[in-house]
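Limitations

Structures in this collection are predictions, not experimental determinations, and the ligand pose is part of the prediction. Treat each record accordingly. The example that follows, with 5-O-phosphono-beta-D-ribofuranosylamine as the small molecule, is included so readers can see exactly what is and is not provided: the inputs are given verbatim, and the output is the predicted complex.
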Amino acid sequence: MSRKKVGVLISGRGSNMSALIEAAKAPDYPAEIVGVLSNRASAVGLQVAAAEGIATASLAQSKFLSRDMFEDTVTQVLESWEVDIVCLAGFMRILGEDFVNRWAGRMINIHPSLLPLYKGLDTHARAIADGATEHGCTVHYVTPGLDEGEAILQAKVPVLAGDTPETLSTRVLVEEHRIYPEALKILANRLP
Ligand code: GRF
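Predicted complex:
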């Protein structure tokens, strides 16, 4: 079995990245995490990945003259790792059309809502404010429209009386860590 090589893009703590790294330790998992790139040098996830012996890179968009130049460099780093698949895991930058098209069908994201509900930010607070009775997370293909690509997997959790965005996000995160590795496995097995 040839394992697909995966690059993970993060901005912060990287708990979903860690879930992918853990899943990929299984010998029969069809993908391996070969590199982790952050747009923030302080991202805790970078240290976690490095401690696992995984290649890391940090690129601040503000150091580049344009978003295109930043994204071209991200692509160069990913290509230097020979990645087949890109996983966005809490990467807090909107990616441009050229970058998205470059990785079309091979780039996925985890979003903390039951898409197409609550695209964008502050999903947990918005679900609570709406009086939603269920909430959850979605792993989807990345397309040029924000949080619009086809879903690969979704998981639901109940919204409980007295939930705050923090308690709800904790409940959702458990499901994120479960479905992201499953969805990556599905994608890796779909690719030739
Ligand atoms: C997760 O809730 C993810 O769904 C969202 O950003 C958060 C990232 O958390 N896109 P982590 O960095 O994976 O811990």
